[in-house]
Amino acid sequence: MNKSSNHASSNYIKQAYDSSKQSSLAPHIQSNSVHCQLMARELNLHPTSLFFFLCLTNVFFTMARASLSDHLTMDNFRWGGEKEDAIEKINQNQPPFATDCDLSIGEWVFDASYPLYEASCPYLSTQFSCQLNGRPDSDYQRWRWKPQHCSIPRFNALDFLNRIRGKRVMLVGDSIMRNQWESLVCLVEAVIPNERKMVYSNGPSTIAFQAKDFEASIEFSWAPLLVELKEEEENKRVLCLDCIEENAKHWRGVDVLVFDSAHWWTHSGKWSSWDFYEEGGRVFTNLNPMVAYEKGLTTWAKWVDLNLDPRRATVIFRSSSPRHNRINGWQCYKQREPLAYLGHSQRVAGQLVVLREVLKKMIFPVYLQEITSMAALRQDGHPSIYATRAHGGQEQHSNTEFLVSDCCHWCLPGVPDAWNEMLYALFYSTPNN
């Protein structure tokens, strides 16, 4: 989207936004007006009485109420990095969505009408702002994911906001999920007037974007392992495999939950995020990483089964995002276009074998969103040396050992936008309510 098209469409967006807002308020006002009439009738009062007037006045003031907007710099909200790479292919669990198309099989096609938002989106962290950090090429922003057997509707911000009206959408996981959260916020924020949106924090581990006129929020909750990682005496880090409430307390009352957990589970030794395991009150050190992963996911699955109602909440588990850093962290350096889809499935990694088995045992229907194989084709989409502004413009540096190449996270606009278009397709395939 170029700046001239932004200018040309600004009036249309404002009119569409106002129309969407007005059409949404009318049913509420009408419904509450009827409520006032019924109350007046119950009290044997005439519809022109002072009571009826005050009741309607309260309705209008309630609908118009809004707090001041608050803009927070995204770099104020920082969480840890990632430690795992994987390329895998998995099957989908039975979804609560009316879709029979496998969105994960397809190809990346160049589309000059992309990206769907500007690289200057104010809600992007420095780490993902590759253009502002000096990345010289921009074609990585213009690749659209095209499924083989169906099509994904182009992301429509106003339609998405209407579909989540009155709801909370929360993305839960690691910094890759934070990457996706910033993408989703940037996809919707441009159609909302500045005074009608805000970002706020609910504590050190949560952040939320609020669309006031839609009474909707898009939130992020930091929980890279889902279960609890505690710091005990002498700075010893303990991963409690059967403890989850400190993280899960943020998930209660949320309408749509999107989870991921993969990268933090795989490394050991000096790369490990913990020193000890704890389970059933017993503390120990030696445990197969895949066994630990299964125990942690099982704790999460039990919490979902016991605490969430499938009639009121939707749960999605996003598969792991691949890293392209197997060659000393430089596999994504100077990459400029996607790999070709060869028409065969990638290998199934141990983590997603475990995940699939855990989901099969659950009572709650969880949709498994498969993004691993599609993202595996996009080694061009990582920040590489453009994750910080200090490295911007240093591509011709003669000695790369002094640079850091991030082949884990994703530039924005970029690959996570396609994940959110897939998410939008899942909403799009269901009724508007």
UniProtKB/TrEMBL annotation:
Its main location: Golgi. Residues 152-425 form the Trichome birefringence-like C-terminal domain. It is found in: Golgi apparatus membrane. One of its GO terms (molecular function) is xylan O-acetyltransferase activity. InterPro entries: TBL, TBL_C, TBL_N. It is a single-pass type II membrane protein. The keyword Signal does not apply. Keywords: Golgi apparatus, Membrane, Signal-anchor, Transferase, Transmembrane, Transmembrane helix. Residues 100-151 form the Trichome birefringence-like N-terminal domain. One of its GO terms (cellular component) is Golgi membrane. It holds the Pfam family PC-Esterase. Belongs to the PC-esterase family. TBL subfamily. This is Protein trichome birefringence-like 36. It comes from Ananas comosus.
